[in-house]
Amino acid sequence: MATMLRDTDTYIMHFDRFGKELAAQGPSSLLPLRREAMAHFTELGFPTTRHEEWRYTSVAPITRIRFQPAVADGNGLTQAHLPLGRITGCRLVFVNGRYASELSTPGIHAERGWTLPRAVKAGSLAAALKTDFERVETHLARYAAFHQHPFVALNTALMEDGAFLHIPRGVIVEEPIHLVFIATRAPSGRGEPVVSHPRTLIVAEENSLATVIETYAGPDGDVYFTNAVTEIVAGENAVLDHYKVQQESEAAFHIATLHVQQARSSTFSSHSISLGGALVRNDVRAVLDGPGSESTLNGLYVARGQQHVDNHTVIDHAKSHCNSHELYKGILDGRATGVFNGKIFVRPGAQKTDARQTNQNLLLSQDAVIDTKPQLEIFADDVRCTHGATVGQLDEDAIFYLRSRGIGVEEARGLLTYAFASDVLGQFKIESLRTHLEELLHARLLRGERVRERR
Amino acid sequence: MLEIKDLYAKVGDNQILRGVTLTVNPGEVHAVMGPNGSGKSTLANVLAGRDTFEVTEGEVLYEGRNLLEMDPEERAREGVFMAFQYPVEIPGVSNLYFLKAAANAIRKHRGLQELDAMDFLALVREKAGLLEMDQNLLNRPVNEGFSGGEKKRNEIFQLAVLEPRLAILDETDSGLDIDALRTVARGVNALRSPDRAFIVVTHYQRLLNHIVPDHVHVLFNGRIARSGGKGLALELEAKGYAWIEDELVGAART
After folding, report:
1. Which residues of A touch B141 (CB under 8 A)?
2. For residue range B2-41, what is the model confidence (pLDDT) as tens digits?
3. Do the beta carbons of residue B102 and residue B162 sit within 8 Å?
4. ipTM of this predicted complex?
5. Which positions in chain B touch A412 (Cβ < 8 Å)?
6. Model pTM score
7. A35 vs A41: CA distance, rounded Å
């Protein structure tokens, strides 16, 4: 009798193949770490909906497909194909998870007269593991919980490349650093769906300031799997703004973890917009690990058709006198499903914590579903924590008001939907990014409405 | 311009209009008065196309066309405008953006070129001046955080920008202090023209001191109980609505 294949076997095979290549590379291969992570992955297995953290998100569609490891293949990509081309500043491009130097402009923008400060390191993680091993090794996989989260474990075992950013103490990077993760269509004849495990490490030392954008995109309609992990270390008084634009193919799978570890008086903000993907899971965890630090988590998720988008956030108030503000908004149409799970921990001794969380959802159709769950676990007594969640439809009075002024019903609905998202987008500080997203959203919301009209 | 013939309308099982007949010609100002619950606002909302009201009988012709068959936006594009009794707050949409979308939807319908940002701004500035609108309100979200008076002023400001042929003012005077009332009335009077008509729905006579009507109608129990000139409004002010009621009851007895 043939042995049943377990759903984890595909990845165990990837690791066996990969491990042989790595063994030759010495310490920079991180082989012991990878083995440990793979052991955790094998032990944890893929989560099921019986798992509390995955109750509303079934990853069965991912485990059913035997993804192949992605190969580095630019497939004729040029700069013109890249999303968010208008963003100025340093750009690092990763094709199927691997650094693509021919598409990247890591340091200098001669035509714009702008140079990345020389002390800043911005490049490929794989390269940094060879040239800057100690610095990378000090932080890599120290924060994102590969012993608990199966996808983080998988990423840690199989990661090949991603970005490594190091902003030394006191350095201010004025222009955003743009990380573009792009999936390409498999070469003809080899149509197997591929998986990549991009891994990014951002170390912002004390008194530094930087802005990082991560964009994820791929060919429309293609099936592939992005399993990304980003770790951010914010030193004392560091200010780091992080943006994530997820516009994967609507047939793709996107699982990502962002972990930020904050030291005393650091300020971090995460702005996330999720538009693409058939099945999306974003885990964001901010650990306020030094007194006086501040975290802002700001998110927008937009889904239609049969898209499923799950945002799990954790704000861990580990020390006293920290503030956190969280605003997540969802717009769900068609038969889309959404999940928001926002956990706030206030650890013993984390007095004078001020934590505010809001989740608002707009359902545009009868069949769209949202599961929203705030979770507060408070172990200190002198704190202020507030949370609120709402689920609603478009306001009929507002629609009538707009129509009574000559605005068509579909445009009115689009306008109100767009307005619902505006306070999240309004917090995007990079003007070119905000304008781009506003246009993207505007087009999408109005186009969505036209599709509805035809039905 | 507008012919309302034997109009019946209800909300749910509640019959509100019971046979309203009214003709409005270009250039005229008609005041529709009446006690609470008489159907004044229902009449205004039915004309604007609010679908919470169901028309059960009668017809409304606007410029010879069946108004009741038109969507609210089509009515607006054809030149019907209602100033709301309770203007709606729309967070996230700036007043200016909203008005530009509206003005251009109407212009497009009329075969006119859409206004560019500069032309539109010039138009808006001029009209805002007419109504002594705080320019800051233009960039704020529609009606959000506006005072009662600011909201009403904003309605008349929209009227001024959109230049309808038939303007219906639904209790625009409620919630206005006397200065705001004068400003709003001045705005309306400046917009009076031989080819534009107004229906001014109001509970009190005081607005009609400033916007002097050609005709006054008293709505009672969903029907126009009495029509007359501007003197009728003064008579109502002096005697109250009970007088009409007594007359109606008296007439029914004889």
Report:
1. 419
2. 999 999 999 989 999 999 999 999 999 999 998 888 999 9
3. yes
4. 0.95
5. 73
6. 0.89
7. 10
